[in-house]
Hints:
Layout: H1 5-17, E1 31-32, E2 35-36, H2 37-43, H3 50-54, H4 58-70, H5 82-93, H6 95-105, H7 117-125, H8 128-144, H9 149-172, H10 194-217, H11 222-252
Antiparallel strand pairs: 1-2
Helix pairs in contact: 5-6, 5-8, 5-9, 6-8, 8-9, 10-11
Amino acid sequence: MTASSYEAALARLLAHEGGYTNDVADPGGPTNFGITIYDYRKYVKPGATAADVRAMKVCEAKAIYRSKYWNAQRCDELPAGVDYAVFDYGVNSGIGRSGKVLRRCLKLADRSNLVTDEVIAAAKAADARALIVAICDERLRFLQSLKTWGVFGKGWGRRVAEVKTTALAMAAGTTVADVPAVPAPGRAVVPVARGAQQGTAGVVIAAGAAAAQQAHQSGARPIIVMAIVGAAIAAAIAAWLFWQWRQQRRQEA
């Protein structure tokens, strides 16, 4: 694949990575454009804080991706589609893993993760489509083995599937539709079920309704029943607002 294809691959990667996130369930910590605070400290600013990561410019992220991921894996020299699959894998799980997996899928020794001349030659001689499938399938198996699969698995699975589809289209030389500019949860975006968002408020309302019914059955005056219902609704609203505040604090902590 030619060097100019880097921009197309990067656009798809950035769409998956999204913007700034910082979730306690993600070991990557504060992350922006997919660049973790650890990589930012390593490549741009030693001692960087979460605020520095939040203020990161997209041009800084692009420079890191080009030098430390694309060029480091010699993606310009890999076959069409294989380059994108390896690049995205390296960003998501580290080039130490993606390089070894590429070697393993090519039936080469995986004691090293370096993409050498031998690796390039083997990749060019291989069936690109079969190689892409092997890389993406291994990637999915690895992600499924992680303890955080239960939190991020849905997004990770969707991302790997989209990368596989796109990479196969690249290998076939067909037009590839743009991926949606929505981050697939996987680095620091935790999908929260709608039921969980409403759970606390629902419990409060249910308890209030039960109390109102009991008061009504015991012969309490209508004004008292209405007061109980009103208090339950107010408590439910307060609970929902507290939940929203807590979720915001988790993302910005």
